[in-house]
Structure formats: structure tokens, C-alpha cells
Model the fold of this input.
Amino acid sequence: MIKSRTFFPLRISAVYVISRRANAMFALLPFLIFLAVFALYPLYELIKMSFMETAIFDGEFFSEFNGLDNFKKITTDPLAVNSIKVTLLFSALCVSLTLFFGILGAILVQRSVIFKHFARNIFIWPAVIAPVVVSMMWLLILDPTVGFLNKLFLFLGRDPQIWLDSKMGAFISVVVVDVWHWTPVVFLFFYAAMSGINQEIIEAARVDGASERKIFGNIILPILFPTIALVATLRVIMTIKAFDEMYLLTKGGPDNATSIISLHIRRIFVEILDYGYASALSFSIVFVLALIVSIFYFFRKKRVRE
Done:
């Protein structure tokens, strides 16, 4: 009798656990189907195409396995090498500038008393504008004849500039547009992180005679380090896969000065129709982005354990 009494509750408990797991899997089923259809299958096709030599004859698509030839072609393609260099420089400048201005804006708004709510609304609004609208706005601002910047130059007695027709001017322009567009997002991250800092710690440091620079360097910055790592990772990913604003502003010109890797891949896909080589480039970018996320996740877990 004792065994039968103990067995029945255990059986009920096992059935309950199994049913909960079944319900959890059923709840995840739509997401798993979505992931398989829109992520895993396209990734599989991309990887498969990366090892193919493709061609179109008489409207028909032909492909043949060519091993690692598409990946070897990346290192010998001068346009691809140039696009990688431009992307790295663009990413480094945009990430560092948005981090700097995001932290600076968060500090200024955090310490402001009168304009805090007004400044928060002003800082946020560029982030909600679509990249296409941002590009059109800046095309009008940078226009050599009716643009605001050249009108300002004329007012100051300076000669007007053709901003997007020179290598340096075009590259600086796209960096400025990207920083202007995405700094508000970075600001929101840092403002939220700084709002969670215990102000009693900072006040105690001020009472002990610590300067504002020491408070920032020894208290605020270490607390913000996880947020800095997260935001830097997100911004690196965003700059590597940037496309809209760069394409609408410069289309990669002049003379490939702003041709980041996404524009180069688009050119190979759409204009040259070399799908195998374009797939190899795309898969390389996916691999790099996955590697960046993995490194961030590893260091985050390591820091949490410590």
C-alpha cells in the first residue's frame, strides 16, 4: 500500500512536467518555423552558393561546384580589398564618435536640471527617422547650390564646397550622417545606465574631495563598461551592414571612396550577376558578425563570473 500511494503522486508529477515541456515547445513552434524559413534556410542556400560558380545563359541559371575559389577571389579582388578597408575605417570612426558623443550627451543631460526633459526629447528624435528620409535631408543640406551648408559658407564669406564629389568630402559626409543618425540610440543606452547609478556613491566621493574627472574615471566609467561593450558591439554590427544612407548619398563614389562592403556585394549581385562570389562575400560578413557577437558573449559571461 505504501508503494502504491507514493507511485501515484510521482506519476502525476511526471505527467505534469512532460505536459509543461510539451506546451513550452508548442509555444515556441511558430518562432522555430519562422527561424527555419527566414533564417536557417536562406543561410544554408547562401553557404551552398558560396562554393558554386554561377552563370546565366539564355535566361537560365547554371551553377557548378568550385570549392574555395570564391573565397580566394576576395583576397585578389582590389575592389573587395578597398571595400574592406573603407568599411573598417568607417566603422572605427562611427563607433568611436557615437560612443563619445553618446556618453557626453548622457552626462550633460543627467546633470541638467532645467533642460533635462527638453534635451531628452531633442536627442531622441533623429533616431526615429527612417534612413531614406535621413539621406534625403542630408542630400538637401549638402547640395552645392541650394544646400544649407553652402549658404552658411557664403554668409561667412567662404567659397561654396561640392561636398559629395571629392573623396575626403564624401567620406567625411557619410561619417557625419551616420554619427548624427545613430548617436541618439547610443545616448539612450548610456542615459539609462547612468540613471541607474546610485547617486549616494557619487555624493560620498564628492564629500571626500574627489574631482569630477576622478569620479568619472574611477566610478562612473567602470559601471558603464558593460554598456560600453554592448553598445560598441551593436554599433560595429550596424556599421558593417550599413547600406541605405551610403547608397543614397554617394552610391560608393567618388572613385570607390565610400564603397563599403555592403555596396560592393550589391554591385556584384545586381550588376555583375556573379552570385557565387557575392554569396562568398556575404557569408564572410555573416561569419565576421557572428564572431563579433561570440566574442562579446564570451567576455560578458566571463565578467559575470568574475
Notes: The two ends are 52 Å apart (CA to CA). The chain has two domains: 2-50, 79-305. The chain is about 75% helix and 5% strand.
